[in-house]
Amino acid sequence: MVGRLLNGRYELRSVIGRGGMADVWLAVDGRLGRRVAVKMLHDQGSADPSIPERFEREAHTAARLAHPSIVAVYDVGVDDGKPYLVMELIQGHSLADELAAGPLDPRRAVRIAEQVCDALAAAHDAGVVHRDVKPANILIGDEGRVKVCDFGIARSADRAQAALTAPATVVGTSSYMAPEQVLGEPVDARTDLYALGCVLYAMLTGRPPFTEGSPVQIAWQQVHQAAVPVTALRPGLPPRLAGLVGALLAKRAGDRPASAVQVRAALTGAAGGTGTAVFAGTAGPAALGGGAPIRGRAPVRPATQSLPALGEPPAPAARRRGRSTGIAMTALGAAAVAVFALGALPDRSGHPAAAPTSADTTHSLPSADTPSVETPSTAPSDPPTETPSPTPTDSPTESPSDPVKATLAAARAAVRAQAGDGGLGRETARELNRRFDNLASQLARGDNDSAAAELAGLRARLDQLHKEGTLTDSGYAAVLTPTDQFAANLPATATSGPLSP
């Protein structure tokens, strides 16, 4: 292959990235006399008749997005039956390579995220949703310029497109997929913002919010499980930055920031800010407000917090170790693209997700490092097995319309789940439920100062249980989420007073 001339123009010089489906070559454009990166499929990939269409679509998508923070695609073609893409050559490394050495300084993380926001804002303005924002697709040039690459699974947000793979599949990288993307629901700009939140989380902690288990198990967690607060893994982060991460990781798209432009503005000064990020929820893709504010570490609304009411997670599997290797000096980051059958995961209510229409199934060309992983529809969606409840039997079973009652129901459900898993003893579970009951009663009767004091004591108790190992990281996050929702119901003038015993 070395020395091969593609269509009489692009001379292949050396492989600079190799993966399960494609190789990336350093090449020379003989017509313009410049070095480029050429992405070329292996023989097995070329056998798929839809591949040329995917390459063509990626080229056309990128051509619409001329921006300094987006890797340029120059050309697309087929040589001797093999499709190829010609892209801008980046002298540098991927963010995935950088994260292999550990978390970043918050100021550097913010600088990188700001430039990613610039790229996403340009894409979203053009009506394009990337759908695979992750460290491997974020390239950092030697001069410091950040560029987003690999629009192979991007789709138009404003019009339906014909599906390019089998129906009822979802394509993306599970560790960075938004809940609506996992479930095959419509996606928009806020889907990319969730992924950006996962990237920020990884830059600040060294790992994305969910890492345990197979791709299907991680996808289940994206839908059903609250992330461990970023400050629990990296204490001392500026509150504004931690609050922004929590807002980006909201399970409901309407609870996230409205746009990449808004996130870009929030990032300014966030690495040293002392305030708390507050964003208005968005009722739709174009909305700039209208939802309840998101404060501090509360990424999930009460309606999505009753984890035990949802389907069981997939059965544990042996953990896979290893890291996708970023491709230095290329216009293509390493990618681990997972393909899920939609029936493999229960929806937000715990029932198997329905297959999307063709408008929602425009899918991917796997990137250079690994083949797509097709996961059979085997994840259980049965309701949880019953366990003796350590709580009174009159606890709510439905989420009431009253926000305090809804949060109380979510809190009791979270405690019940931790008791059922064996982490909490019966007496500790009763204690937590009693504290939540007191908090709800105080809020209901308007005794805000007492509620603030109860809340402070409750948080201190949860921190203690987490520190001593009674609550796992995930259990701590699950119970802390409704706790923070209670805090959102407190007026800013409430004072905490002394801690409760």
TrEMBL record:
SUPFAM superfamilies assigned to the protein according to its UniProt record, in alphabetical order: Protein kinase-like (PK-like)
Molecular function in Gene Ontology: ATP binding; protein serine/threonine kinase activity
Record-listed E.C. numbers: 2.7.11.1
Residue segments, region Disordered: 349-405
Reactions catalysed, as given in the entry: L-seryl-[protein] + ATP = O-phospho-L-seryl-[protein] + ADP + H(+); L-threonyl-[protein] + ATP = O-phospho-L-threonyl-[protein] + ADP + H(+)
Biased composition (Pro residues): 381-393
Binding residue positions for ATP: K39
Domain named Protein kinase: residues: 10-268
InterPro entries reported in the protein's UniProt record: FIMAH_dom, Kinase-like_dom_sf, Prot_kinase_dom, Protein_kinase_ATP_BS, Ser/Thr_kinase_AS
EC category name: transferase
A Pfam family reported for this protein in Swiss-Prot or TrEMBL: Pkinase
The keyword Ligase is assigned to this record: no
Bias kind Polar residues: ranges: 358-373
One biological process term in Gene Ontology: negative regulation of fatty acid biosynthetic process
Keywords attached to this entry: ATP-binding, Kinase, Nucleotide-binding, Serine/threonine-protein kinase, Transferase
Database matches in Gene3D superfamilies: Phosphorylase Kinase, domain 1 (3.30.200.20), Transferase(Phosphotransferase) domain 1 (1.10.510.10)
Ranges of biased composition (kind: Low complexity): 394-405
PANTHER family the UniProt entry points to: MITOGEN-ACTIVATED PROTEIN KINASE KINASE KINASE 20-RELATED (PTHR43289), SERINE_THREONINE-PROTEIN KINASE NEKL-3 (PTHR43289:SF6)
Name of the molecule in the record: non-specific serine/threonine protein kinase
Species this chain originates from: Dactylosporangium aurantiacum
